[in-house]
Amino acid sequence: MMQTMIDADEAWTAVLARDRASDGRFVTGVLTTGIYCRPSCAARHPRRENVRFFADGAAARAEGLRPCLRCSPDDVSRDERAVLAAIAAIKAAGQPLALADLAGEEGYSPAHFQRVFKRHTGLSPAAYARALMAERAADALTGEGNVTGAIYAAGYSAPSRFYEGTQGRLGMTPSAWANGGRGATIHWAVVDTSLGRMLVAATAKGVCRLSFNEGREALETRFPQAELVESGADFERLLAQVVAAVEAPGDFAHIPLDVKGTAFQEAVWRELQRIPSGETRTYAQLASAVGRPKAVRAAGSANGANNVAVLIPCHRVIRTGGNLGGYAYGLEIKRKLLEKEAK
Which one of 41, 68, 71, 314 is the catalytic residue? Predict the structure, then answer.
């Protein structure tokens, strides 16, 4: 029986992204080959139906599986052990810990440990702790308890610190994203643009889906538990901003978003938003920008996992040598977007 503490959907997302931050947290068992791997294994991804997740190698071996020779899932490096220990300490404390203390516990200098931690998770230790606090607070606030109590319980020293730290991040909670949008209301519309029919959907926080040549059925697939409401007065104002931004691409920072992903995916998406309009980056440059220069394929997977086209400009990433690479909505739309921005 699969370990109940492992969220299979989150684990599979980490595997698809080859997320090194998940190494050591579980192993991926492939029933058809009889092997188990790290989440970050570079081997070709198996079919989802052939995969089971185990807490560790011992649990996988108990089911008759053997370790992958390519990624050596039972060999955890010193850096990985140090990062996992720091993550455990941060979770136990429920708040950011001094970098010097985290580094000293594992025998690293603060500057070097900062680089090691960011290489494995895509975030600094302090940013990782803040993200955990924001996630706990967002989940707590979906309940019916006292709001101030939920803020303090999440680890914030005062409500003002919570609102400063989570400004622009609240919306659909991580659990709602994982559970098909349960408890969320999503307004949506399909409009005509110069790039074709465009689907725009948003929660109370911001845009959660922007795609081309899709309709309501795409939202029903991604958010089957959400309440889907076509149009709406507040949404119409947001929709007008989105359409204007798509027709005249440039700086999209003023348009609020509601997106969730793994730490690595969100790090990639932040880097995409930093690419100036009219410029492009290669997948290799994107991987280097998030501190994972060898994770080119993982950066490409995170790029492809983007739910909000254009506003998180994954179209600005091309292959080394100038080839456009791929695009979920077809190369013609990608080419048109780049031409618009070049002007």
Answer: 314
pLDDT < 70: residue spans in the chain: 1-5, 21, 76-77, 122, 134-178, 250-251
Total-model pTM: 0.55
* Whole-angstrom distance, CA of residue 90 vs CA of residue 313: 32
Q: Are residues 139 and 118 in the same domain?
A: yes
- Pick from 280, 286, 343, 285: nearest CA to 315: 280
Domain containing residue 234: 177-247
41 annotated active-site: no
- CATH at residue 225: 3.30.160.70
22-70 pLDDT per residue, tens: 777 889 999 999 999 999 898 889 999 999 999 888 899 999 999 999 8
Residue bearing tokens 């950066």 = 299
What CATH number did the domain enclosing 12 receive?
Answer: 3.40.10.10
314 is annotated as an active-site residue: yes
- Report the amino acid identity of residue 2: M
Catalytic residue of the set 37, 41, 68, 71: 37
